[in-house]
């Protein structure tokens, strides 16, 4: 089983919302390009029901960054990426079954980086199994 961030990246690539290593990254937001997306593994939730011990409940954070003057464009990019990922519930990605993908937070402005580029994020809760 891959870390969830790698599978989420595969979903983004499959939906044509990013190209891994070009404008889509996992766990490392590089200084370039300006417009890019990065996925981070952020933990998860406890499994309360013993009947679901075969399930994992990870969470991921998705960050989208762009040009300083493109605030609305970046927000729309984040929305497109989010909507593309949500289409992958009840499917198999890289041999892992994704039972559900849920939005934990709406698209949120985080800050501007040192080059004044806006950063937006949203968080996802995932239910998956082997």
- Oligomeric state of shown chains: single chain
As a percent range, the share of strand residues is 35-45%
The number of domains: 1
Can you count the beta strands? 8
Task: Give the H and E element order.
Answer: HEEEEHEEEE
Under CATH, the topology is which?
A: Alpha-Beta Plaits
Q: Helix count?
A: 2
Which properties best describe this structure?
eight-stranded mixed sheet; alpha+beta; Alpha-Beta Plaits; elongated; 2 helices
What's a quick, concise take on this entry?
This protein has 130 residues and is an alpha+beta fold. The protein has helices at residues 4-14, 71-86; strands spanning 24-26, 36-44, 55-56, 58-65, 91-93, 96-103, 108-112, 118-129.
Write the layout of secondary structure elements.
Elements: H1 4-14, E1 24-26, E2 36-44, E3 55-56, E4 58-65, H2 71-86, E5 91-93, E6 96-103, E7 108-112, E8 118-129
Parallel strand pairs: 1-2
Antiparallel strand pairs: 2-4, 3-8, 4-8, 5-6, 6-8, 7-8
Structure write-up:
The chain is an alpha+beta fold and 130 residues long. The chain has a single domain (4-129), classed as Alpha-Beta Plaits (2-Layer Sandwich). 21% of the residues lie in helices and 38% in strands. The protein has 2 helices and 8 strands, in the order αββββαββββ. The chain has helices at residues 4-14, 71-86, and strands at 24-26, 36-44, 55-56, 58-65, 91-93, 96-103, 108-112, 118-129. Strand 7 and strand 8 form a beta hairpin.
């Amino acid at each position: 089983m891959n870390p969830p961030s790698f599978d989420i990246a595969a979903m983004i690539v499959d939906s044509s919302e990013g190209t891994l290593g070009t404008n889509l990254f996992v766990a490392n937001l590089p200084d370039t390009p300006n417009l890019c997306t990065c996925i981070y593994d952020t933990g998860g939730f406890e499994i309360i029901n013993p009947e679901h011990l075969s399930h994992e409940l990870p969470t991921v954070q998705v960050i989208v960054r762009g040009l300083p003057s493109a605030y609305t464009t970046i927000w729309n990019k984040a929305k497109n990426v989010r909507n593309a990922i949500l289409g992958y519930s009840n499917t198999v990605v890289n041999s892992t079954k994704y039972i559900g993908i849920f939005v934990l937070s709406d698209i949120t402005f985080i800050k501007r980086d040192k080059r004044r580029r806006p950063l937006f994020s949203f968080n996802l809760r995932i239910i998956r199994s082997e």
